Amino acid sequence: MTHDEEKLLRRAIELAAQARAGGNPPFGSLLAGPDGAVLAEERNSSLTDRDITAHPELKLARWAARELTPEVAAATTMFTSCQPCGMCAGAIARSGLGRVVYALSGEQLDGLKPPGTAFTDAPAEGPALYEEARVPVEGYYSE
């Protein structure tokens, strides 16, 4: 990691502190262009917005998908205070961002939480009804 990248990662940590000071979970992220210039910054606002999806990584991925060309998005780097959760990682992949650099891993984050407070997956069943479910999907991705 370069000195400039360390500065950007430290800024993401500062954004996390700002989120916490504002009454939200302590997570912050920024998106840097290919030249290292900051394109956008976000803080977690899931509590104050009453929106469980208001993670900074997801907000930046949505912004990038709306505002950047695929070529520019692919040349960006997201710097984030913590490894993106599954929801955010999916959005990042779909937005076409080029790279993610994070400070805390998900495992390190869980180690900082009190026992029993980690999120668990909801019970899921499937696949089911393949013949019916494939009808609206079949051919969509080849159009």
From TrEMBL:
UniProt cross-references to Gene3D superfamilies, sorted A to Z: Cytidine Deaminase, domain 2
CDD domains from the UniProt entry: nucleoside_deaminase
Name of protein: tRNA(Arg) A34 adenosine deaminase TadA
Organism: Nonomuraea fuscirosea
GO molecular function: catalytic activity
Domain of life: Bacteria
CMP/dCMP-type deaminase domain segment(s): 3-115
Coiled coil segments of this chain: none
InterPro entries: CMP_dCMP_dom, Cytidine_deaminase-like
SUPFAM superfamilies assigned to the protein according to its UniProt record, in alphabetical order: Cytidine deaminase-like
